[in-house]
Fold:
Amino acid sequence: MRHVLLILALAAGACRIPNPDHCVHKDVHSDAWCADNSPERPWCSPCVADGNGCVKTQPDPDACPSYEPDTTTGDDTTGTEG
Structure:
């Protein structure tokens, strides 16, 4: 029985390998971090490991429930000057 528990404990710990370079670990605004560091992949997906999590299209919340878009801070840099 101990062998089974040991194997289960090792398998559970091996399911997820932390990547300190993944975009979710880089900045509170992980989408913005990807846009700055990988302009061709401006979105951060916690469900993708390749490319440190930066992807070309915004993650679909249904396919990747862990994804949370960056929150806005009230700074609107996309508006027009007038």
